[in-house]
Structures are given as structure tokens and as C-alpha cells.
User: Fold these one by one.
Assistant:
Number 1:
Amino acid sequence: MFPSVLKNNHLGRYFTPRLAGAVGLISLSTLNYGFDNQGIATSQAMAAYKRQFGVYDPSTKTWAIPTYWTSLLNSLNFIGFAVGLYIGSVISARYGRRMSMFFMSLWAMMSATVLISSSRIEQVLAGRILNYAYVGMELATCPPFQAEIIPAPIRGFAVGTYQASLLVGGIIINSVCLGTNQMSSNAAWRIPQGLFYVVPSIVASCIWFIPESPRWLLLQDRVDEALDSLQKLRRPGPDSPTPEEELARLQVSLAEEQNQGTYMDLFRGSNRKRTLIAIGMNFFIQATGSPFTAAYGTLFVQSLHSINPFKYSLMSSCINTLACVTAIYLSDKVGRRPLLMLGSILQVAWLFILGGVGTVVSPTVAQTQVIVAATALSSASLCFSWDPLNYIVTTELPASRLRDKTQRVASMVNILTNFVFSFSTPYLLNSPYGNLHSKVGFIFGSIACCSFVFAYFCVPEMKGRSLEEINNMFQAGIPVREFSSYPVAILEPQDDERKGNKSGP
């Protein structure tokens, strides 16, 4: 009975065992991003971690990591992110998606060794920079790889697993941190960080057993291998093209692309619109509060003295994961734009509540709990919308020859925005600097208002469209708000005979 239900589900109709294995392995690699993202943030609230890397304050008789080091640990890592993004993008474009994933897995094991063996905070900073080079390689490789191998009707779900896996990684490592945080030795933070070795070892061992991207193989003129890859990844069905038909459509689309794959092409013709949309998506995902909740959420909640920060981190990770899985499941049914706009509205509500309650000089217990709840719900709203959908939309927009370069440029904007807000947030939160505390909600909430406007006017609806159909619509100059209603049949690729006669009467 269960196999029958799975087969009749819209996901089960398209997933073959090899495709499921490929998507699963690519998603698995993102667990390590979640391990680092949440593991380091949660470790910074541990007494053992503060004692090892912090400074003793005789007046309070406590250890604490200075604000400037907190800022550096959560911002300079994006230097590694940018370098890794470029390296991963180059390896992915020249040597294939699988080779990039293999190389980044080996790198991750090296950077994990630096982090776990650190005894000085300078070593932690170096380890974070090195580990974020792995995260950059991952971002350059995994979402495009998933977008290129998956059928259009389930592409949103598959690419969205990048963010879902990141959040599951957060649940796992926050659970471990909850169990170890009471340890007085450095094992309290070294045990969770030991997880950094597990995923790269699995990915490096198994990556060669999944098919390479057929679109990348076509770009290398390896037609027979591209067909073989499609045959392994596709399930035959009356409503689906055969691998041979899909291959022919991919070849026609590549032949008709109006660019040669240079950086200048990103800002020419229809590509300019695509590039600017991708840049906007990657700006708003960070500018609406993601660094605040992800990097500083645990420390912020700890400063409220209201709830166990480690229990909060675990609770928030669970809520975020549920919100993300719901979003990626709905993305192929409801669409991208409605979820983005709803997420922006929710963000505005929670962030303004956070800022409004923060204006109270001496908040009550109930008001403090509202601040905690608004922080968690703000994070959940991002995970329900912009966090997973950013990767989906950014990988759907570009032309095939520009997918790697578009991902590279848009992600650089993501990194720069993340750096700016990650570096400045501790100074906005803490005294003797901005001392805004929860009033930062007014800043991020105002930007969230702009994200709604951007989603409504600028983001096209691409659910259910093949990457080739999306490419044709942009090249035809279709307004972005008409994408959802534009007839699919008009975008079907011509056969060779009709293509040769299309200039005739």
C-alpha cells in the first residue's frame, strides 16, 4: 500500500532510485553547513568555550568573548566563503559537479581538524574562515547540480532540500550541544564539532556513484554521456518526455542561447533582468535578519535570562525545519511568489513586534517571552519563504551557459550582505555601542517591507517550467508578472526541420 501511495504522490511519480540517491547525497553535504552554522553559534554560549577563548571579567566573575571577537568570528568567515564560492564555481564549471563535491569534502575534513584542535581564539577564526571556504564551494555546486538533474514539476522541492538539510544539521548539532553544554572540559564543544568529519567522509566516498549533470555534460559536448545520465535519472511516463526527447530539447535550447557565457553577458539583453533578480534575492535573504537569528540568536536569548539558550536553539531549529519542509513541498504547488510575499509579511509582523516590545525599559517576564517568541518566529518565517526559495529562484533564472557565473555573482552579493550585517549586528545589539538590543527589529522589519515590494514586482513565477522554457520566456521578453500565464505550448522546442524553416513565410 505504501509504495502505491508514494508512486501516486507528485514526488513519487518523478523520482527514480538513482535520482533520489543523487538528490539525497547532494542534500546530505549541506548538513555540514548546518553543523557549522549552528554548532559554532551555540558553542559560543557554552561556559567551557567562553573559558577557553574568552576574557575574565573580575566585576561579574564570569568569562565572556569580547564583542569585537564575536563580530570577527561571525563575519570574517565570509572571506573564506567568497574564496570557496569562486573556487567551487570554477571547479564545477570546468571539471564537473561531482569533482567539485569531492574536492570540497576533502577540504571540509582539513578545516574541521583546525577547528577542533584550536586552543586560541585566533585559531578558531582561521578554522572558521577555512571551513566557510567549504561552505562557499557547496553553495556554488549543490543548488545548480540539483536544479540541472531534476524534472521541472518537482524542482522546487529538490533544490529546496539544500536549505532543509542545513536546518536538519542544526537540529542534530543543537541536540548534541544540549547534551554536552554542562561539561566543564573542552569536550563540551569538541564533541559536537567532531560531527564535521562525518558528512564529508560519506560524500567523498559515494559521489562517484551518482550521475553527472546532463546539462553540464552537454556543455562539454559529451552527448552520449548526457543521454546516459538522463536515462538513469528519469522515470518513463505518458506525461513526461523520453530521455532522447529531453536531450533534443536541451540541445536546441543551448543552440539558441543568445550569449557565449562571458561575464559581460550577465548584463546584456534579457540576462540583465535575470542577474538583477538573482542579486535582489540574495540581498534580501540576508538583509531581513538572517544573520541576527542564525549567528546571534542563542547569545541574544541568553542575554534575556528567560529560557535555556540551548533548549531555545534546539526548539528553533525544529520549528525552522518544519517550516522549510512545508515551504519546499508547497513551492511546486502554490508557487514561488506567494510564499515569498507571505514570508515578507510575516517577517514584518514579528520584527516590528520584536522592536516594539524592545522599547520597554524594564520588560516583564511575559514581555521578555514575547521577545523570545518573536525572534523564533522571525527565523521560522524566513525558513518558510526566502531561505529555501532563494536557492530555487536563483538556480532557475540563468541561461545554461551562465548558470555558474550567475550563481557566482549573486552569491557574492549574498556573502557581502551577510558580512555587513554579521559584522555590525553585535555593535547594534550591545552596549557601549548601539545598545539597540531587540529594537534592531525595526531595522530588519523595514527592510522586510522592501522585500515584499521586490517579490511582488520583480520575481517571476517559474513553478512547473523547465529551465529551457524559462530561458525562452526571458529571451522573448515576457514581463515577469506574466510568466505564470504564458502558454507552455508556444515554448516547445522546434524539431530540426521546422527550426531550419522558421525564417520562411
Note: Residues 2-232+269-487 form a domain with the Growth Hormone; Chain: A; fold (CATH 1.20.1250.20).
Number 2:
Amino acid sequence: MHIFFAYSSKFFKPKSKSLQPISLLLFNLTSTRPMSQSTSIPKKMERVRDHGYDNYMEVEKKTRKVVKFQDLILSQPNQIIQASRLDLLARRLGFKQHEAGAFVLRFPHVFEIYEHPVQRILYCRLTRKAHLQIDQEKRALTAQIPDAVTRLRKLVMMSNTGRIRLEHVRIARYEFGLPDDFEYSVILQYPEYFRLFDADETRKKYIELVEKDPSLAVCAIEKLREIEYREKGIDAEDIRFSFIVNFPPGFKIGKYYRIAVWKWQRVPYWSPYEDVSGYDMRSLEAQKRMEKRAVAVIHELLNLTVEKKITLERIAHFRMAMNLPKKLKEFLLQHQGIFYISTRGNHGKLHTVFLREAYRKGELIEPNDLYLARRKLAELVLMSPRKAKMDSELVSYHRDWGDDEKGFIGRDHVENAFEDFGGGKDDRQGSDSYLGGDYGSDADDGCDKTMDVHLTD
């Protein structure tokens, strides 16, 4: 792997001494000299959209609604719902009147409408593919509990008080790969790692570590720097405190902004796992270190998540425990080359923070089993309804056959004939934009346009 800095040397070359008009020279002599611009990163910056991440969130907005509907169906007796009761039950999820039926019909690979053979009433249930995806996600969630324990230990170690609220972890349990009953299956199951301060109210419960493990106090970015040190040796001294920076397409970078980022990359900072309560924060140098430490904390927090993304509102829950700034959105906009904030989903009220270096062309560079299992649901959501119609035609054709021919083709054969829960390449309409499309050239653009710190194999 290789980290390098791309600069434009033209900024440091002296300008050519060409002849200027006399009027321009007189103007320069009589006018006051403008003050030099500051080389610090601007506090307030406009957000530059990256449509790749926004498209990712558009798909997740659909899958989020689908998951709510799935949970509603699974909570019913026999895991079926009468079609006439869909609107009534869907109002609990925020659906409008007569919207639930149309929503179910939009995703025939997830939901199935069928007629009861005796009652002659329409019912709604999950398809076999949806059940397989749910089972796969449950198995992946159970298998990665040891990793989730490590992530939770590192999360508590980043707290300045050595403990963290149970309610805040419960709200973000999906992002950190924790099961719904993590209080019993993770915290109480591992008493050698965690200590739970019980209380009458859930909001007053705290998680504390029995003993801190120094081997876990290593950030993900530090591991990358260590690899670079081993490869480059003394030449890697410039990356000692640097982060991987890759600005979004269309981000305007001026001369002074380049210099400001260049200087910021070399500012030393304290580790997110280091206790800074005893340091004097009155000096300007200490404040700069704390600002960069906040970037390192959010960077490490995103690395602890399963999909390397989390909502801004859930990061705010850890603000007091991790010494993060009050205006988180403005703070993250200062570092758009490291993080990306997407406002898609929930009518712009939801802000999702992505770790830019972790994604390439809409996919995680280092995927895990739980991420892949969750992506299966997105594949079912994006799959063309045309294939579902073809499946139903084949199954109905199968019913007309004799008993001696029923073994040749059936529902199991039709649904398993398509690899990886999805159809062939011709049947995956719209899935390329989510799974394999070009996502704003995170890795391909910007070497000659921006000052990037790339990580390549």
C-alpha cells in the first residue's frame, strides 16, 4: 500500500515579470495592499454533493421501509397479514392511507400476495428469498459477536470518563453490529470485559470496562501508517499525523486552501484512546491538537461500524463522552475530503456520515459478512418485477403438469436457479447504480485536481 501527497508546484513558482500597463501600475501604487488570506481551514464551508453516496442512501431509504414492513409481518400470528388490514397496521409505521398496498406490490421479491385456498381471502407474507436473506443476516450477526465485543470495548475506551451510556449504544446498535438483546447476549455474557451499572431507568445505565487493554488502543489510521512506515522507512515521516484525503468531484480548492490542508496534515494530535483530562487546553497549540483529535475520534468511530457509516444524530449522542465539538455538521464540512454527509432519507432530516476512504464505486473496499447479508435485501429491492412475474408464470405452469412431472421444475427450482438471490445480469435493472456503478470517482478522480492522500495496493 502506498500513501502519497499530490501537490501543484505551480503555486510556489514566482510569477513572470511581464510588462504591465502604466494605469495598472499607478493603481497598484496608490491603492492599499490587500491583507493576506489566512492559511487555516475555513470554519464554514458549503457542502458539495457526491451523487454516488446520495444514490446509496436512496436505496437504503427503500430498504429501511421494507425492514419495517418485514418486522410488522413477522410479528403477526403465522407471519401473515390480511390484505384488508395492511393500511390499518401500516399507519403505525407512518404510511398514509392506501399506501401500504401499493408499497407491497412494488417489491414482489420481498412480499407476496396470495389467496387463501379455503377462506378465499387475500393475505400478505414474505417470500422465500426474503426469509433466506433474514436467516443469512441472523447467522452473520451471531457469527460476528466476538468482533462486536471488541468494537464495543474500543468504543468505551474512547470515552473520556471510561464509561458510556447504555441507551446511546442501544440506539446505534444496528450500526455497530450488536444484536437487539446485546445487554444480555454481549454485556452480561462477557463479565470479564464489561461491567454494567444498573439503575431503575434504562437511560441511567452505564457500560464500563473491567480493565483497559492497551493492545486495543490502536486506531485504524495508525495501522495504515505503520504499514507505510515499514515500506518506506524514513521517507514516510511526512505521513506521521496525516489522514487519507479525497475530495468529492466538483470541490473547488484554492491556493490558500491547499496550503491550509497541507499544514493541517502535519499538526500532531492526541490519540482518541488517550486520556486528555490532565492537559492544559488554554494554548492555541492545544486547541489545534484537540480539533484534529476530534477528527480522529469520528474517523475511528466510523471504522468501528459495520458499514463505515452512521447518522450525524447518533454521533451527537457521544459528543459529551468523547469531547466532540458542538456544531458537528459545520465541523465535518471542514473536512469533506475525509467524510461525506448525505441528507437523503427522511425528507432531508436525516444526516448520514460516510467514511470516504472505506468506499469505492458504491461498495465497501473491505466488506464483511454482515454487510454482505444486508446488501442481499437491497438486491431484492432493486430486482426487476419482471423476474417475479416470470417466476409466477413458471410455478403456475408447473401446477398443470402431472404428478410424474412435478419433480422437474417447481418453486424451489425457480427461486434457486438464480445465483446469489438474484437473477442474471439482464434481470438486475437498476442494481448497477447501487452495487457496481461509478460512485463519484472516489478513487479515480482528483489526483491532478485535488491534494489527495491515496492508499493503494
Note: The radius of gyration is 27 Å.
Number 3:
Amino acid sequence: MTRLPTTVLPTTGLLATDPAVLVLEDGTRHAGRAYGARGTTLGEVVFSTGMTGYQETLTDPSYAGQIVLQTAPHIGNTGMNSEDVESRRIWVAGYIVRDPARVVSNWRSERSLDDALATDGIVGISGIDTRAVTRHIRSAGSMRGGIFSGEAAALDPDAQLRVVREAPEMTGQNLSSTVSVAVAEVTPARGERLGNLAVLDLGVKQATIENLADRGFEVHVLPQNATIDDIRAIDPVAVFYSNGPGDPAASADHIELLRAVLDDRLPFFGICFGNQLLGRALGLGTYKLPFGHRGINQPVLDKVTGRVEITAHNHGFAVEAPLDGPFDSPQGYGRVEVSHIGLNDRVVEGLRALDIPAFSVQYHPEAAAGPHDANYLFDRFRDMVREHRDTQPGTANAQESND
């Protein structure tokens, strides 16, 4: 993520007088008004189709390095509160909205959205034709962009475009260290305790941690640079890879770590970035989508049940794999099959290993702000771990099955 120094100034929503301009790397320009912090910010411009849940979107670490455009026209109506945040800060590189709320109207609100953006130093822009920008990205693909607000909006247009084009592309970026915890954090299990779960924090959301703890896991959130010895040290019953930003092809260390986990025959579940990393650990390729999937209204087919789920997505990369029938893992981990398929564009949305205890999905089953169609996947993970535990030598159930 590249963010130039910003100046934090008070804002007044639509009444803000400071100008701002959105500049895309192809030279497209959109003039609007400053929103949030003033200054310059750079990143990959992407759009999210969610009609609700802007607070969860902003605090999702998977959006690090990206300037997020909300396709919903009215943003900020319910303000911000301290209960619905998904992580310790706002992670988007920049924010684009059409009509920011002038008045916050919700009993849970603790501050306005533009104040929250300013506090975290997030440069935004309002008052532009977000539909036009979205249609352009859908045609031309996600691209680098910059928001220049306040004094920066008056910079020479050629200079602004040059700054945008000098910014790094998302392809090839490893952003895990930017969003991960620095030291391990533990959340106790709730209900019947199943055991310790090693969660590699590549940008984990709080709702994920809560869902795992609710299934009886003592959740150990580990830094993204954890080693296999760090994982073995907590004597885990399973390993989980979280969502996160960046290009999976640039995460060689995480892929090698996952192969060590699979070699240990530890049950594994991955979501979003974790799905892409499982694919690469199994020997599959990944590729960048033209404009990605971001929003809370994406239809996915669960091939196991035949059920169509409406799901929450936030990803710009996907796994390359045959959609029909099992195939052999190129890396030697036995048979694998695509378990879920996106119905909009036939993108791989899930993987299931048939000979080792491992599966993953490309979307977000925790889905804070909804929908909750895919929440059952946490139960599926818990059941897989129980079954694996009960069939290991030395367990009571294993002894019974041998008698």
C-alpha cells in the first residue's frame, strides 16, 4: 500500500468546500469534494456492491492497498460505532462515495463516518458519478488510481497522473505484514472445548475469530511470519488461514508453511486469501480477476448440497482448477475437487481435498453485516476436526473402532 502524507482537517460532509479529484492510471479524471482526511492517497481502485455494512468494509484488512468505491449512493447514514469494527483500524487506502450523509441518524452511532476517516488519515472523495466510475472499471478492469484533495487537488494534472502511474500494481504485492498482528493473541473457546486452533493472521476479521471460538476452538491468532514450529508449539487440533490483501503468488513463505501443515495431516480450513493459498499449496495456479468480486450479494453454488448461497466477497485473485470432477493435486496431496462455483462467472469459489482433511472457500462465511447463508461452513470445519481427532490412534473412539 502506498499512501502519501495526509493532513487531517475537520469535515462537514456535503458542505465541505475543499475540492478533490480522482485520477485513474488511464488518464480518466473525476472532480468532486474532499471527504475524510485531506492530502493524496494511491492504490488499486475497486468497487464494492454492498448496500449495507460500510463500517465492516472499511475495517476489513483485505482492503489494504485499495481505494474502495461504494456503488450504493448514500453512505454514512448510520455513522460509526465501536461494536461493529472488524479490526483495529480502517484499512482502505482511500474511499469514494457519491452522497455522504450530512446528518447521522442511528442510536448506536458514536461519531460520523467522515470524522472516522479523518481520524485514521483516510483520504476520500465525494460528489462524483460513482456509477460512471464503476462502469468504466467493469469495462477496463481495476487499475491504479489516486485521490488528490485539498491543496493536492490543485496540482498539475500531468503531475498527478505521473504520481499515479509510479505507484506499484497490486500484482506481485505481499501485504500480509502490513495487516497482521505482531504477537500472538488468544480468544478462549466458548461451550464444549475442542482444542487449540492456530489461525495465521493474514488480515483476519473479528467476526471470524468469534465464530471459531463459538465452535469450541481456543483461537490462537498468530503473526503472519509464524513458522511450523510456532504452530506445533501450541499443540493445535487444526490450522486456519484467514482472508487478507495482496497477490497469493507473492506469498511463498505462507505456501510453504501450509504444505508443512498438510504434511503433518493437521485439519485445515482457509477463507478468501486462505483459499488461494491452499490452491497454490496443492500445486494449482492463481490469476488476477479483471475487476474482482466485492460485495455481499454474490451467488455461489455448493456442489456438495446443490444449494445456491448468497455470499459476501472481497477478492481480486482466483484459483485455476478444473470445475468438473476430482483431479489429482499436482503437489502430491491426493485427490481434490472444486466444491463451490461462482454463478456469475464460473470462478472457483471453494476447494475440498478428498484424501487429507483440508478445505477452503473463496468468500466470507462470517459475513458481518450479512448475508449468513454460508455460516454453516464453520460447523463443517468443527465436524471435520472432531472426526479427524476421533479417528487418531490413542483416542477412545479410535480404540472402539479397532475392537
Note: The CA atoms of residues 155 and 200 lie 42 Å apart.
